[in-house]
Specification:
Elements (H helix, E strand, L loop, with lengths): L2 H13 L2 H8 L3 H15 L4 E4 L2 E4 L1 H29 L5 E5 L1 H18 L5 E4 L3 H9 L5 E5 L9 E16 L12 H4 L4 E3 L4 H11 L5 H4 L2 E2 L3 H10 L3 E5 L4 H6 L2 E4 L8 E9 L7 H16 L1
Parallel strand pairs: 3-4, 3-5, 7-8, 7-9
Antiparallel strand pairs: 1-2, 5-11, 6-9, 6-10, 6-11
Helix pairs in contact: 1-2, 1-3, 1-4, 2-3, 5-12
Length: 301
């Protein structure tokens, strides 16, 4: 058997159809059928039960599918390692940023790479955690830097903690709330609340701390994956930002933003780290990002 036959079988198993698998693989249906038949001859048994128009995996087929996927993954990683070695460079880096670390790291990291490694391609993606994980598993990106509490542990994922960033409510200087001697969540609710999507764990903490009215699904009125527009909105309107204090770094440093102290206090943090694929060959550029992220996120913390 060969890698091409295993690739053909995986496509057939995933599509459930010879015609759809052939379309995906850009081969003719007769050629695909011959390839599967040759695989079955070498294995000494059928991998697919051809029931009418349906194609169901046999017990042997299910075992072959698991091993074929693993072999295909290792083959692609071997090719990737060879390409990185042959290039003699540090390779490109394709990283998915969550809202919190993205607000702190995106611009500084791009500036550093442009200044020190101008020929290295850097691709930064944003989006919902589920979409980012699909892209990671499809090897469309090399890693994620996100709130790792929003990731369900799995055998194919490596999850590495980097830093905890303090959660906070931020508002503009001279906001009406800053004149109150004591600020409660009910007071905050009188104004728009701006936030990026919040992890389930943080959502539960907010509800425990401030009651059902603090459920982000209900109380946030301005939601965006990109924190920069949220911070700008907070500095120029009566909106209140809910997120990490580090996201408002420049605004807090300049005095345009202030942190609200609620009663009871928030006492929460975002737990940020790297998520990569187990067994994935990393481009050398990933080590640059790891070092950069550890330094900057810990400074921000």
């Amino acid at each position: 058997m060969n890698l091409r036959q295993l690739e053909h079988f995986v496509a057939l198993a995933e599509t459930g159809s010879f015609s759809r698998a052939a379309l995906r693989l850009h081969v003719t249906q007769p050629a695909l059928s011959r390839s599967i038949q040759q695989l079955e001859e070498e294995l000494g048994g059928e991998v697919v039960d051809r029931v009418g128009k349906r194609n169901e995996l046999t017990p042997l087929g299910k075992e072959v599918l698991s091993r074929a996927r693993a072999i295909g993954f290792q083959a692609s990683e071997l090719k990737r390692a060879g390409e990185l070695f042959a290039s003699g460079g540090i390779g490109e880096i394709r990283i998915g940023f969550g809202a919190g670390p993205g607000a702190v790291l995106t611009v500084p990291f791009m500036k550093m790479m442009a200044a020190r490694h101008p020929r290295t391609r850097v691709v930064v993606s944003r989006g919902a955690v589920e979409a980012q994980l699909r892209a990671l598993r499809a090897r469309e990106i090399d890693g994620l830097l996100i709130d790792i509490r929003s990731v369900v542990p799995a055998a194919d994922l490596l999850i590495e903690h980097v830093a905890d960033l303090k959660g906070a409510f931020l508002c503009r200087r001279r906001h009406p709330l800053t004149r109150l001697k004591e600020v409660r969540f009910a007071d905050v609710l009188r104004y728009p609340i701006a936030s990026s999507p919040i992890s389930p764990e943080m959502r539960r903490l907010l509800v425990r701390k401030y009651g059902p009215q603090a459920d982000p699904e209900q109380c946030t009125t301005i939601v965006c994956e990109d924190v920069a527009p949220l911070i700008e909105t907070t500095m120029t309107t009566d909106a209140v930002f809910l997120g990490t204090a580090a996201a408002g770094g420049e605004g807090l440093a300049s005095g345009r933003l202030v942190e609200l102290t609620l009663t009871p206090s928030l006492s929460a943090s975002g737990t940020f780290g790297f998520v990569t694929l187990a067994g994935r060959t990393e481009a050398p550029a990933m080590s640059l990002l790891r070092e950069f992220a550890r330094e900057h996120l810990r400074d921000a913390a």
